């Protein structure tokens, strides 16, 4: 045990006088303390020098202090593990350790100085007192995973300030709706638009709410040769894109991007409360997110689309730097990626043909969980009896176009250029039956791919009919569902027998160990209970609402996915700057390079996945 009064010339340490220690109160968790708590801590904290090789805490020891590393390196070791795998965590500048020992009474592991270190010493009694008196400070150490994931987002550069700015609510920028009677005329509508200085107004008729824009009025007067006295009802559109009052403004931006509109209507219980226009949204956002979206929509040829697509990595970096929550970042990037792919389809495929088919995407793109571009995963559903001689050539051209836009070919051939992933509903029914009959891992993989199908262009209804076929052949077949879920056990969760992170060369594969079993487990439940959503978080919500999953488990799984996505994205962005880096290099997370908060969260997230796998093993009768 190291005490602050131990002399330096004895090879252990020395104590710095109180009042000279400069602990950073702006960093977590000390930033969570109130003024009185900070004052007490500042008066009590001391500093000690620790020579390399010093064992600060050993397994079974109690501690009189919580330690914060100021300079140097301290390693956490499992004394019961072989030397090659004994290393659990590394603590460097500003990392904190010893808090769990204070809570538990004794240390489970050994803490040893690897490089001579200066550490702040927080008396254990004071630390316990601060936890008892200041709930937010205590919650930092005891919070569940979902709460910790937000702390991680806020620790990004600029995150605390800009996250709040980016996450404004819809209610903060909506305007009051301008309402027109159902029997109003075009002249009445023009007068109201001018009087209120707006570009659209709402109209209620037969219990429904419609929208009328300046463009609608111009079309009626010029193209349909109506007069100012003509009823305006026929020009209204009742297919509204809506949001709820308490939704984030960022969600409204995503919806505008996905539906290619410049306004959303705020609704509550069938009543229009307000309207959010694009200019209102743009005034709230400092990033260039919608500018990229506008470039995609305004692209008049493939060259312009390529330029817009090339700016997505820049946008990702901006979103991450500004502390945007991972869920919203994924939604926005999924919407933009979807529009880029749809625009490419529109450039290549004649409109008459586009209305006779549906382009769908699979994998992370289909689930709306893709941030950076990965390899292509797409397919095509054709209307029955469609005679399309140019299809094969167009399909190959489309795959080549996506490569030009930055989406590499799928190594497994899951692309529209592969006839196996193109066909009518009758063709898809035959394939589903064949895969169900095969029952092997390859067939289950194809069914899993199909379960994530999401439409991006053409006739959306065709994907829903395809999903009906999938449910019809799979949802009530318990043997098939067991085989479908079994791959969650193909990769061991990278945790040691003692519950610590298990690494190889100080790295772990976050996709195999965390992302895949979580995503596929939720996908298996969704197939079993006929959940139509493809996004993992949306699936979790529906499973909870239907009573098939506990809310606490769903929250933890959502938090775990956020942690995995955050760490994986950071590694992928590093890999992007390395020439010749493999697409999957972002899956290898360097555990030694993580902060103590990140290591704690990763460990917690993997424990959540492990518990989820055990639950699924019981539900689907798997061998665990």
Automatic annotation (TrEMBL):
Gene3D superfamilies xrefs: CBS-domain, Jelly Rolls
InterPro entries to which the protein is assigned, alphabetical: CBS_dom (IPR000644), CBS_dom_sf (IPR046342), cNMP-bd_dom (IPR000595), cNMP-bd_dom_sf (IPR018490), DUF294_put_nucleoTrafse_sb-bd (IPR018821), GlnD_Uridyltrans_N (IPR005105), MgtE_transporter (IPR006669), RmlC-like_jellyroll (IPR014710)
Top-rank taxon: Bacteria
Transmembrane segments: none
CDD domains membership: NT_GlnE_GlnD_like
Boundaries of every Cyclic nucleotide-binding domain copy: 29-108
Name this protein carries in UniProt: Cyclic nucleotide-binding domain-containing protein
């Amino acid at each position: 045990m190291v005490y602050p009064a131990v002399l330096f010339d004895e090879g252990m340490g020395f104590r710095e006088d109180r009042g000279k220690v400069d602990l950073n109160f702006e960093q977590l968790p000390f930033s969570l303390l109130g003024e009185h708590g900070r004052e007490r801590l500042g008066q009590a904290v001391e500093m000690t020098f620790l020579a390399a090789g010093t064992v600060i805490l050993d397994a079974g020891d109690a501690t009189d202090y919580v330690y914060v590393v100021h300079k140097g390196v301290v390693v956490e070791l499992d004394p019961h593990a072989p030397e090659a795998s004994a290393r659990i965590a590394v603590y460097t500048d500003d990392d904190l350790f010893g808090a769990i020992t204070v809570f538990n009474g004794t240390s489970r592991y050994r803490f040893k100085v690897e490089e001579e270190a200066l550490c702040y010493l927080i008396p254990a009694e004071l630390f316990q007192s601060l936890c008892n008196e200041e709930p937010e400070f205590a919650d930092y150490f005891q919070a569940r995973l979902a709460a910790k994931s937000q702390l991680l987002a806020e620790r990004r550069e600029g995150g605390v300030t800009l996250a709040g700015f980016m996450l404004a609510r819809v209610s903060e920028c909506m305007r009051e709706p301008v309402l027109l009677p159902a029997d109003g005329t075009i002249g009445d509508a023009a007068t109201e638009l001018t009087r209120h200085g707006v570009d659209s107004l709402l109209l209620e008729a037969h219990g429904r709410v419609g929208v009328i824009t300046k463009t609608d009025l111009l079309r009626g007067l010029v193209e349909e040769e109506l007069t100012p006295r003509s009823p305006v009802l026929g020009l209204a559109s009742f297919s509204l894109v809506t949001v709820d009052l308490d939704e984030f403004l960022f969600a409204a931006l995503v919806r505008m991007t996905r539906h290619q509109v410049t306004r959303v209507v705020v609704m509550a219980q069938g009543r229009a409360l307000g309207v959010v226009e694009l200019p209102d949204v743009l005034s709230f956002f400092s990033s260039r997110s919608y500018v990229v979206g506008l470039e995609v929509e305004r692209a008049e040829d493939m060259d312009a689309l390529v330029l817009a697509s090339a700016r997505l990595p820049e946008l990702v970096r901006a979103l991450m730097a500004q502390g945007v929550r991972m869920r919203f970042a994924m939604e926005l990037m999924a919407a933009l990626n979807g529009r880029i792919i749809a625009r490419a389809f529109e450039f290549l495929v004649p409109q008459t043909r586009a209305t006779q088919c549906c382009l769908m995407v699979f994998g992370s793109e289909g689930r709306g969980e893709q941030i950076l571009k990965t390899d292509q995963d797409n397919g095509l559903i054709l209307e029955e009896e469609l005679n399309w001689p140019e299809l094969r050539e167009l399909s190959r051209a489309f795959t080549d176009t996506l490569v030009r836009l930055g989406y590499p070919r799928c190594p497994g051939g899951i692309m529209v250029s592969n006839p196996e992933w193109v066909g009518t509903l009758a063709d898809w029914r035959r394939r589903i039956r064949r895969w169900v009959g095969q029952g092997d891992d390859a067939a289950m993989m194809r069914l899993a791919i199909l379960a994530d199908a999401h439409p991006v262009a053409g006739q959306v209804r065709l994907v829903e009919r395809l999903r009906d076929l999938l449910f019809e052949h799979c949802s009530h077949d318990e043997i098939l569902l067991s085989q479908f879920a079994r791959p969650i056990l193909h990769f061991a969760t990278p945790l040691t027998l003692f519950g610590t992170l298990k690494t190889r060369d100080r790295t772990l594969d976050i996709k195999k160990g965390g992302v895949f079993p979580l995503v596929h487990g939720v996908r298996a439940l969704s197939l079993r209970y006929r959940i139509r959503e493809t996004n993992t978080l949306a699936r979790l919500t529906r499973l909870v609402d239907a009573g098939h999953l506990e809310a606490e488990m769903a929250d933890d799984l959502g938090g775990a996915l956020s942690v995995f996505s955050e760490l994986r994205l950071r590694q992928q962005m590093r890999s992007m700057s390395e020439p010749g880096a493999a697409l999957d290099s972002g899956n290898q997370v360097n555990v030694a390079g993580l902060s103590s908060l990140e290591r704690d969260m990763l460990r917690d997230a993997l424990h959540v996945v492990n518990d989820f796998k055990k639950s699924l093993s019981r539900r689907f009768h798997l061998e665990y």
